[in-house]
Design goal:
It is a single chain. The chain is of the alpha+beta class. Helices cover about 30% and strands about 25% of the residues. It has helices at about 20-30, 70, 100, 105-120, 125-140; strands spanning about 1-5, 10, 30-40, 45-50, 60, 95, 150-155. The strands form 2 sheets. It has a 4-stranded antiparallel sheet. Strands 3-4-5 form a 3-stranded antiparallel sheet. Helix 4 packs antiparallel against helix 5 (about 125-140). The protein is globular and about 50 Å long.
């Protein structure tokens, strides 16, 4: 999740992924494995994921998840990062998006896409555009398309 300004932006959350050293350490200490998926030739593809040893589950590209009972056995925890921020007069909009958006769209791209929709006060079309852009990037760069969710709030 991040707080987005027209001229500047600030990321408001941490993407809890298994490539963060402290997350990977917890998973490995819990008996989990942190590796990429592999293609038919044994080459790593996509982001790092959490696996049970000698298994093809859970295969999550995140290190925290609420309600994942299988993931819990290999170090995936449900604890969210909780942060507080004050909104001010320069706050233009906030985006809350799933990892399906952020895997291939960075903060700058999201900001650039949002400018014209903010000026038109069209949050709905901004959401559709974010989802479409993310979907197109997934289709170009990966074997599958992850879930893609976007929420936009204009101020």
């Amino acid at each position: 999740y991040f707080h987005l300004y027209i001229s500047d932006l600030q990321q408001l959350s941490i993407d809890y992924k298994p490539d963060l050293p402290e997350e990977a350490n917890r998973i490995i200490m819990s008996g989990g494995v942190v590796e990429q998926m592999t293609d038919e030739f044994g080459r790593g593809v996509g982001p790092l994921r959490v696996w049970a040893k000698d298994s093809d589950y859970p295969g999550l590209a995140m290190s925290r998840s609420i309600g994942d009972l299988k993931g819990k056995t290999v170090g995936i925890i449900p604890d969210p990062g909780i942060f507080e921020y004050d909104l001010n007069k320069t706050t233009k909009f906030i985006l809350v998006c799933s990892d399906g958006v952020w895997e291939y769209l960075n903060n700058e791209k999201a900001k650039d896409l949002g400018k014209k929709f903010y000026l038109k006060n069209n949050a709905s079309e901004y959401c559709h555009t974010l989802v479409s852009e993310a979907f197109n990037e997934w289709e170009k760069k990966d074997q599958f398309v992850d879930d893609i969710t976007a929420v936009v709030v204009f101020f």
